[in-house]
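Propose amino acids for all 194 sites.
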């Protein structure tokens, strides 16, 4: 489930980024190479071309808005699953076992919940653009500039300890295998020697 959500969210981000790159480059091209000030609709040069360009840009931005909203839904699902997995793992492990911390999982859950609130805020933009755009931007700033870096730093500090513990457990298993003589992975069959 995590893999599917991660791939879906990543593809949505890629699609959204490509669409906005195309929109920006086309808007730049149109503003440079076309006459947008005077379309001869009226005598005073009312800039109708600029208005049309701005409306077209807003329409394309609105299209990517929904793609970004789905991306937050996927990210929220990932963090919720991670939270419950860590919670379940904490109940099953010994007291001194190395695992992800509950604080790390809580920060992830907060990021996920704020992502879902941003999804709702993105949907509600259709009713009050200014209010819900502001809410959405604040959540984005909190999530992407504060909470997500903290979560990644916490993850980066924990992974080397977990790697070492995992490698130590693998070494202990290999030692037990050699002591008991049950080395099925390296034993050769007499049939292969003939």
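Proposal:
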């Amino acid at each position: 489930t995590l893999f599917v959500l991660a791939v879906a969210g990543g593809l949505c981000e890629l699609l959204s980024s490509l669409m906005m790159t195309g929109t920006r480059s086309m808007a730049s091209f149109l503003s440079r190479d076309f006459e947008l000030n005077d379309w001869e609709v009226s005598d005073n040069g009312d800039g109708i071309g600029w208005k049309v360009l701005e409306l077209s840009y807003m329409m394309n931005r609105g299209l990517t808005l929904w793609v970004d909203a789905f991306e937050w839904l996927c990210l929220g699902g990932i963090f919720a699953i991670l939270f419950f997995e860590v919670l379940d793992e904490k109940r099953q492990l010994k007291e001194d076992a190395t695992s992800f911390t509950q604080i790390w999982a809580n920060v992830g859950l907060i990021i996920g919940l704020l992502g879902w609130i941003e999804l709702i805020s993105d949907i509600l933009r259709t009713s009050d653009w200014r209010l819900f755009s502001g809410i959405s931007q604040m959540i984005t700033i909190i999530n992407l500039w504060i909470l997500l870096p903290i979560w990644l730093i916490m993850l980066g500090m924990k992974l080397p300890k977990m790697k070492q513990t995992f490698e130590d457990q693998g070494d202990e298993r290999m030692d037990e295998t050699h002591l008991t003589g049950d080395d099925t992975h390296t034993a050769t069959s007499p049939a292969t020697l003939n």
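The two ends are 48 Å apart (CA to CA). The CA atoms of residues 162 and 168 lie 10 Å apart.
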